[in-house]
Amino acid sequence: MRGRNLRRTLVAAGLVAASAVLVLVLAVAGLLAFIVTSAGAGSSWNASMDELSAALVRTEGGYAFTGGEYLAEKELWAMLVNEGGAVVWQQGKPADVPDRYSLTDVAAFTRWYLSDYPVQVRVREDGLLVAGGPKGSTWKHPFVLDMDVLKTIPFWFAGLFLLALLGVLGLTALVLGRQFRREQQERDFARSDWINGISHDIRTPLSMVMGYAGQLEADPVLPPRRRAQAAIIRRQSQTIRDLINDLNLTMRLDYAMQPLRRGSLHPAALVRQVAADVLNGGLEERYALAVEVPPEAEALTLEGDASLLRRALLNLVNNCVRHNPEGCSITLTAAAEGEVCTLRVEDDGGGGLPVGLAEVGLAPDGGAAHGTGLRLVEQIARAHGGALELHRAARGVLAVLRLPL
Amino acid sequence: MAYHILLVDDAPELRRMVGELLEGAGYAVTLAADCAQARRAWTESQPDAALLDVMLPDGDGFSLLEELRRVGNGVPVLFLSARDEDEARLRGLGLGADDYITKPFLPQELLLRLAAVLRRVYGAGAGEVLRLGAAEVHWGTGTVRRPGGGEAALTAKEYALLKKLAANRGNIVTVDALCQALWEGPMVGYENTLMVHIRRLREKLETDPSHPQYLLTVRGLGYRLAREERL
After folding, report:
1. Which of A99, A282, B206, B230 is most deeply buried (CB count within 10 A of its CB)?
2. For an interface test with A, which of B84, B113, B225 has the most A Cβ atoms less than 10 Å from its Cβ?
3. Pick among A200, A204, A253, A300 to test the B interface (most B CBs inside 10 A)
4. What is the pTM of this model?
């Protein structure tokens, strides 16, 4: 089961990694494709200044230009400005382009626009060759980059890449985690359903065992020995019932399927009710049950699930009874210790608690049948944000439920 | 007068066992195995109370109860269920069920709870009398009669207190539950008032109030009304 999960997780991780690589490759390819296809987009204006310059040759008393077709094809105009700032040659120069230029004019149009015409320039021995395109055809902007900034570019790229990678990995973990949790939940539900079904199926036949045993036990016609035997059957069937109930609830708490029905409750009233329930249920005479509530604990209130806490205390009392077949006195106490409410169940039977807590089922996998009850108490305490402590007391066992107030 | 009980459960062995148990306790019993039979029995025999299984082959007990309540049938109903989660479901539905018993149950437990429900629903009628030794409590008039002692009227609180104890006769009722019944609140602050009410009740009920025979104190827990003596 675990191996299969691991393999599935690995496969899923591989798939996500592969898709991340695919996305990356596609993005790079797309960028390259864009650069390649749009590299020529500016070519109508972006004339080859080498070609133009070569086409303009100085002759005796003038210039010979052979690039006329090239200019026309590209819808360009051209001119040559000499060292003095005068236009000495031009071809197709628009009327709104001046014939003389100062040093500042040249500096300006070299960088920006010449009367709103985008222009390119080339320095020649005899002056400055200027080629211009139509107004509004090209966006021209000088690009300046600090060397220090330029040097950090690789780091920026690396950082962004790492960020993207982290994003992809985080997303993957999230998706996988959710899937894993859902699968686990489905498994838990299936298991819970199964245990639920089994306990349901056991309960009806057990009703019959318990019912007839109870009737035989109360039948005055039977000899006392037979009635005592019936009582044993009845008691054992009750033990089976308690086990089933504990098993069911323990599992529901384990898988967080039993929501707490929290409400305000009085610990003092709770311990009294539990004691009354135990006594009303017929506690045998060799057991004594007492309740102690110090006056200051009477007014205590606690947020909690009354039926679960009642169950926890009942289990602790039953535990005392089960481990002391010779009889004992059991004391239930509700008290406050600072911010904690303590519910204690103590017996003086000297029986009971084996040496290690693991042996009574408080270990994580405590599967020992007689530990189910204590395990459940521990779970209920934890569900309330509290804890269960078991101590060897002076003469018996002391169980303390500590619950935050 | 024997109460008539309708028992609806799909397991024949359980039907037989509980049926025998109820008849043994003096009830008249009608058995039904599913919702259809239950509906028929309901109109034909008009039971005083019903024990309903939750899971039935042709429906569930909850919907059956809903159906009955819709037509204004207020007969007390006790559920028998083999699943823990049914109780939460029942509470969620807010159906007017009178009690809920989880299988497996002890025969005595079933009889006691059925009797408690019947007492709660029918037992409080005028003319009903609670006998505590020589004293007679007449619920209809709210008075206590003692031979030679004449008649004493119960105050509203004494009446409620005695009612609560009588409904749980033989069982301990905690002081908290009594205060809840009398003042609809926790015990804190009412403890002494409760003791005063108990003392006055004893003066009206008991032959020797300082050595009560019927209204018994269970130290540290609450009070208990002694079970009826078998004659």
Report:
1. B206
2. B84
3. A204
4. 0.63
